[in-house]
Design a protein that fits this description.
mainly alpha; two-stranded antiparallel sheet; 2 strands
Length: 142
């Protein structure tokens, strides 16, 4: 079970539980993995989310949680898309970055979740976004 006080989230895949944690290192990996100059560009990039982008984000969060998984490893995890989207969303929410409801996971992948925002290292200062901006995967369910 994840330690929500520490900002952890969980993903169950193939009978194994994985811990996801949004760390500064994970944020840097997301920025680099998506080829972005800064975190404020994450919102724009995730408006039209691709499976490869989701794998980069999930892998960074999993490594933050202590698992040595690459984006390619994430794509091979035995879990459904909804569970992966929910775990990523939970990780950002557990870090204190709550968001407004978004469409289901199938819609999120099809059109990039809602068109309003993405994860940030803090609610405002680090990327210049307000605390009320929704996350790209917020509200997605499996």
């Amino acid at each position: 079970m994840p330690n929500r006080i520490r900002g952890e989230a969980a993903l169950n895949a193939g009978g194994r539980s994985y811990r996801l944690l949004l760390t500064l290192g994970a944020l840097a990996e997301i920025e680099d993995g998506l080829g972005l100059e800064n975190l404020s560009a994450v919102a724009t990039r995730l408006k039209a989310v691709r499976a490869a982008d989701l794998a980069v984000v999930a892998a960074a969060l999993l490594r933050g949680g202590g698992h040595e998984l690459s984006p390619a490893d994430v794509l091979c995890l035995p879990c459904d898309l909804g569970a992966l989207v929910a775990a990523v969303t939970d990780a950002f929410n557990a870090a204190g970055l709550s968001g407004a409801p978004a469409p289901s996971s199938s819609e999120a992948v099809g059109r990039g979740a809602d068109d309003s925002g993405a994860p940030a290292p803090s609610s405002s200062a680090a990327v210049g976004r307000g605390a009320d901006d929704p996350l790209p995967f917020a509200g997605a369910t499996g």
